[in-house]
Automatic annotation (TrEMBL):
SUPFAM superfamilies: Clavaminate synthase-like (SSF51197). Keywords: Iron, Metal-binding, Oxidoreductase. InterPro entries: DIOX_N, IPNS-like_FE2OG_OXY, IPNS-like_sf, Iron_ascorbate_oxido_reductase, Oxoglu/Fe-dep_dioxygenase_dom. Transmembrane segments: none annotated. This is Gibberellin 2-beta-dioxygenase 8. The lineage of its organism: Eukaryota, Viridiplantae, Streptophyta, Embryophyta, Tracheophyta. The gene is LOC18590474. PROSITE patterns: FE2OG_OXY (PS51471). It comes from the Eukaryota. Residues 189-288 form the Fe2OG dioxygenase domain. GO terms for molecular function: metal ion binding; oxidoreductase activity. It comes from Theobroma cacao.
Length: 333
């Protein structure tokens, strides 16, 4: 039985799971293959170097962003409100977190409407809140805490859109992309926030908070608390990314890898559960504009909608995401 406090705040499946939710023998080996923490590249948003940015995206697929301009007080308020929200009972969260927000657990794979996509082989030891930022004004709540959280997310969303646009424009310059063509490759209106809670407890030796995957986005921006647990796959090794206060972790996503003709890499990553403390993270994902066709020398032309539909089909039928390989051009000969 998981040694979790405040049990009624967790989805019933987490409370009642007896034994490992993922295949124990395979998992035990995977749990032991992390090679320790590593200093990842640092990019300064105030003094943006195209060389440093490009190098980080090509060699690592992620970097730590400093001087990003988000007030530390906003980041800490968001974390505090997330903790209070997730501490509510499971039933209260289901009642409060309604459209356009959605509350989910056990998988980070969601349908376009924000519902959890069932069919994954493994349960991810997480619960989350999905917030499409463009629809946030439609969300009305008489709950003071939730209304305050909405206002914080609205302010945070403005910062995230600014950061994502600034970084993408710099990446487009580094890659020498056609400005007219690349204009629709990142659309602020597509941005959404996911707030995650990863339970603590004895399951830490038997379950992943989030199994290994790449993000489907153009860019992902992660604000994590100080508990840690994010791991990346580089040079055939799993490496731990330590949290540093008031910094953000930027991931290159699948869409950016395709846009860059594979010059940039969509980093494979996973999240480890902590035995003693819950972990919270607030993640932002942004995508190409609706109907924008990605043209690449490595992949057949596709839209993000094509990609999303294929990912959902694979997740339902195979139990996992195949991703960009479904769209890769096969070389002649």
């Amino acid at each position: 039985m998981p040694e979790m406090s405040n049990l009624d705040s967790y989805p019933p499946v987490f409370r009642h799971l007896n034994g490992a939710p993922q295949r124990a023998a395979e998992l035990k080996n995977a749990m032991e293959d992390t090679q320790g923490s590593v200093p990842i590249p640092v990019v300064d948003l105030q003094f943006l170097s195209l060389d440093k940015l490009g190098e980080a995206c090509k060699d690592w697929g992620l970097f730590r962003l400093v001087n990003h301009g988000i007030p530390p007080s906003l980041l800490s308020q968001l974390q505090d409100h997330a903790k209070k929200l997730f501490a509510l009972s499971f039933e209260s969260k289901q009642a409060l977190l309604t459209s356009p927000m959605s509350y989910f657990w056990g998988t980070p794979a969601l349908t376009r409407s924000g519902d959890a996509l069932r069919g994954a082989l493994n349960i991810n030891w997480l619960e989350g809140l999905n917030v499409p930022l463009s629809q946030l004004p439609q969300f009305q709540s008489e709950d003071p805490m939730l209304d305050c959280f909405r206002l914080l997310l609205k302010e945070y969303g403005r910062h995230l859109a600014r950061i994502a646009t600034t970084l993408f424009e710099a990446m487009a310059k580094d890659l020498d992309l056609d400005p007219k063509q690349s204009q629709s490759y990142l659309a602020e209106s597509t941005g959404f926030v996911r707030v995650y809670r990863y339970p603590s407890g004895s399951m830490a030796d038997e379950a992943w908070g989030m199994i290994a995957h790449t993000d489907s986005s153009v860019l992902s921006i992660v604000s994590q608390d100080q508990v840690g647990g994010l791991e990346i796959f580089k040079d055939n090794k799993w490496l731990l990314v330590n949290p540093i206060p008031n910094t953000l972790i930027i991931h290159v996503g699948d869409m950016m890898q395709a846009i860059s003709d594979d010059e940039y890499i969509s980093v494979k990553h996973r999240v480890r559960v902590n035995k003693r403390e819950e972990r919270f993270s607030i993640c932002y994902f942004v995508f190409p504009a609706e109907g924008s066709v990605i043209h690449s020398s490595k992949y057949r032309p596709f839209t993000y909608t094509d990609f999303q539909e294929q990912v959902q089909k694979d997740t339902k039928t195979l139990g996992y995401k195949v991703g960009l390989e479904r769209f890769r051009l096969i070389a002649d000969g």
